[in-house]
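Posting for a labmate who doesn't have an account.
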Amino acid sequence: METADVKARGLVLLGCGKMGSAMLQGWLANGFPAESVTVIDPHPSDWVVAQGVRLNAELPVRPAIVLVAVKPQMMAEALPSLAELGSGETLFLSVAAGTPISFYESVLGAATPVIRAMPNTPAAVGRGITAIVGNARASAAQMDLAEHFLSAIGQVVRLEAEAQMDAVTGLSGSGPAYLFHMVEAMARAGVAQGLPEDLAMQLARATVAGAGELLHCSEESAAQLRANVTSPNGTTAAGLEVLMDERAGLPGLMEKVVSAAADRSRELAK
C-alpha cells in the first residue's frame, strides 16, 4: 500500500489531542493533503479547526487507515462507532496507551488488521520514538505504512512481540517524565549549594537539554560521551562515584522505576 492509496481512500484520526495534533502537524508539514484527513473529535482545538481537515464529517467508505488517538478511558465509547470498518481492508493503528490488540479484535472483529504503537511526548517537537507491533492480519505493507506515518513525529522501532510493549511503556513512554524530574532534582541540588532558584533551574534545564542534543547528534555511545567528560579524580568523577553506585545510585533506582511503570502498564491492560 502506497501513500497515494491513503490519499485516495482517506485517513481517519479518532481523537486529536496533543498526540493526535502532533501527528497531524507532521503529516501536513510533509505534504499530506488536509482534505484526505477526517478528524473525529468532540472538542477540537482552534488549531485543528484551522487546518482544513474534514472535521466530524461522514466517514470515508473504505479508509486506508484509522488512527486511534483517544484517551484509554474513552476507548470503550469511541471505538464501537467505527466497528463497521472492521474485518476489512482498513488498518487500525492505535497510539492509545494500555489498550491491547485483543481489545480491538474483540470490538472490530478478529480479521481486522491492527497495529499497536507506543509514542512518547517529544513527538510534539518531532523528536519522539515510537515502538510498533502488529497482529497476524497486519501485512508487511501495512507495517511499512504505519512506520511511514509515525516517522512524522520521530524514530520508529519494531517489536518482536506485543508483550514487549509494557517494557517500552516503562522505558521510553514514561521516560520523558523521569528526565523532567531529574532536572527538578538537579536544580534543587544547585540551590542546596547556594545558587538562586531561577539560576539553578536555568543551569539544570540547559544542561539536560544540551546533553540530550549532544547524544542525539554524536556517533559515540552514551558511555563514551560520559567518559569524555570525566577526568580522573576530577569533579565529575566525584559526582559519578555517588550516582553510579550499584546499590545506592542510579542503576538500581532506574531499574525499580522502569519496572514499576511496566508493571502498572500490565495491570492497566487487564
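Reply:
Got it, the C-alpha cells are right above this. The longest strand covers residues 128-134.
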